Amino acid sequence: MSNEKARPKGDSVDNSFAGNDPREIDLDNPVERAYWMKALDTSEVELRTAVRAVGPFAQKVKDFLKKPS
């Protein structure tokens, strides 16, 4: 039996990063910030803007970044 937490269904963001909570984006952590910039194919400015707009939850940030500007 595995001790890993089950990922919620419909969670399409790659949450393989071993941060504090892989569903949340910690902009204060440079390693995490770089990971999410690469995973979401976005710049630091866009990532910070998205987190400011919708909060640190990876799926919400991903959805925000997909919206046409």
Give the % helix: 40-55%
According to DSSP, the number of beta strands is 0
By secondary-structure content and strand pairing, the structural class works out as mainly alpha
Cα end-to-end separation: 45 Å
Main beta sheet: strand number and arrangement? none
Beta-strand fraction estimate: under 5%
Rg over alpha carbons: 12 Å
* Low-confidence runs of at least 5 consecutive residues: 1-12
- The gross shape turns out to be globular
Order of helices and strands: HHH
Number of helices: 3
Mean pLDDT: 79
Would you kindly provide a written description of the structure presented here, covering whatever features stand out?
The chain is mainly α and 69 residues long. It has a domain at 30-66. Helices cover 43% and strands 0% of the residues. The protein contains 3 helices and no strands. It has helices spanning 30-39, 44-54, 58-66. The protein starts with 29 loop residues before the first helix and ends with a helix. The model is unreliable at 1-12 (pLDDT under 50).
